[in-house]
Amino acid sequence: MDLNDFSIKVLQEVCRILKESNKKYDWVGVYVMENRKLKLEAFVGEKTEHEVINLGDGLCSLAVLKNEVVNEYDVKSNPKYLACFPSTQSEIVVPVRYGGKPIGEIDIDSDTKGAFDKADEEFLSKVADLIAPLVSSLSL
User: Fold this and answer.
1) I need a surface site. Which of 35, 79, 110, 118 has the fewest CB within 10 A?
2) Exposed/middle/buried for 118, CB within 10 Å: 0-12, 13-18, 19+?
3) Is the pLDDT of residue 81 over 80?
């Protein structure tokens, strides 16, 4: 097994643990920056058509471009939301940083409106810091 395969397997396990840790986390994924696009490397939940997201599209790229957490209480009210699943009501996107620069993100969708609070933002930011070396090994 090479380093990339190992990194993806660990990120997949992180997604699984996150999803199982909170009943409001209905879909959990990790996107990695690759050639100025976000590429889905690991996820738990329903398969999405958004495996590659161009910078400038959706809340995912907004989090990377602004280099800050995006916590959308009601995705249906935000025209920037890139719909993955009709059941999704809220979304949180947390940048993964290396050297202070965004190199990827944790993306979580919830079927509950207003599912995410400051505690989620803080917790997921710490998880993002922990996975940063793995994401860095996949980022180009």
Assistant:
1) 79
2) exposed
3) no
**Region label for 114, one of left (φ > 0), alpha (ψ between -120 and 50) or beta (otherwise):** left
Its domain, for residue 11, covers 3-138
Alpha helices in 41-117, H assignment, sequence order: 58-66
What are the b/e assignments for 74-84, b being 16+ CB within 10 Å?
Answer: ebeebeebbeb
**Is beta strand 37-44 parallel, antiparallel or unpaired with respect to 52-54?**
antiparallel
Is-contact 94 66, C-beta < 8 A?
no
Counted domains in the chain: 1
pLDDT at position 59 is 84
Full-model pTM: 0.94
Q: Which residues pair with 42 in a beta bridge?
A: 30
pLDDT score of 61: 87
pLDDT value of residue 12: 97
Task: Look up the CATH number of the domain holding residue 53.
Answer: 3.30.450.40
